[in-house]
Amino acid sequence: MFQTIINAWKIADLRKKLLYTALVLLIFRIGAALPVPFVDIAENGIIADPNANNFMTYLSMMTGDAFNYGTLFAMSITPYINASIIIQLLTVAIPPLERLAKEGEEGRKKISTITRFTAVALAALQSTAYYFYIRSQGYLTAGTDGAALTGFFAVFQALVIILCYTAGAALLMWLGEQINDKGIGNGISIILFAGIVSRMPTTLYSLYTYINRGGAYFALIPIAFVCMILMIAYIVWMDNAERRIPVQYAKRVVGRKMYGGQSTHIPIKVNMCGVLPVIFASSILSLPPTIQMFVTLDPDNSKWDAFWQGFFNIFQTTHWAYGIMYFVLIIFFAYFYAAIQYNPIEMANNIRRNSGAIPGIRPGKPTSDYITKILSRITLLGALLISVIALFPILFSQITGAFDKQVNLTLGGTSIIIMVGVALETVKQLESQMMMRHYKGFLD
Asked: Is the pLDDT higher at 54 or at 400?
């Protein structure tokens, strides 16, 4: 990976893209530390226990601690991710959007515009929820007499805070698109990657606090650290694994030359969707806790409040139901994106038009059915493999908690999958861009 970056740095065009991407990430980190007017959050942040496994800790990880301290980019790119999920799901369900998706480049531009407006609307909704939460916790600046603002001033204060957070989410969405256009690409994922990496010192410090407790933690923390290293190696192996469908092309004579007759294959990656199922599953499960910020429930007040309190507790990362929903959503989004990326009928037609055939399979519908069966099995296998990484830290925390020596690593699986996946995808993009320039120079 480092050798690829060094080689890319030697090419002037790619060096400019790398520097531009670094500049965007610098702006992201500055915005993640830039305070918002009327918000006064203490140095310790809004999260009382940084080692806790809950929705607040998850958002803090995804935003690079911006959510914890209420800075400009507290919403990060989660509104854009949620908007992308919603629009792509609606593209399958709503005929007008489906027609737009089939109109080529022009249709994709219109869908991108719709996604942006949806992302801004979701950012405003999440910013409003966040405002009500920090107001209920007493993190807003008071008036000159020490009392909370009322009337027009309270409304003005709320508008400024909500608009700042909404604008921060919109700015991050734009910065991600600029990385796609002028940087090395994969902009949204790289911003998410930068936020998670910035949290690594906090994560390491959390592990250090466990060691200070002594006793069994002297053995559990090294075991947890080794498991994280093994998970990284496991993700790299899984990313390189692929299923090759053999294809045999018939010989044909064109003029005095003979074409075809060779054997090749269609490579299908086991983890064909990358980190997207994990990111989207995490984002979907973050919506109910966002709604919870709008209301304050008192379980002792009534059975109705107790019911809703129990419902929202299901979406805490330490709850067993969260693990089940997380697992199901990862598999669902894996199949969803496999259906978008691969069209077995079109693949079968392309093979037939080029006088090719899969050995032992008749051309036409039998070939498309065979490819569909292969894709279904590979997608399920890839989803199960990636679910192992996502769910292992949850199981590890539960097992250690059963012995009163709980080590909270619930968020480790998600962050490791995203970091390693984005790093591998970025390196591959750099390699492909270097290859393109190599061929261009050769042809010139």
From this structure: 400
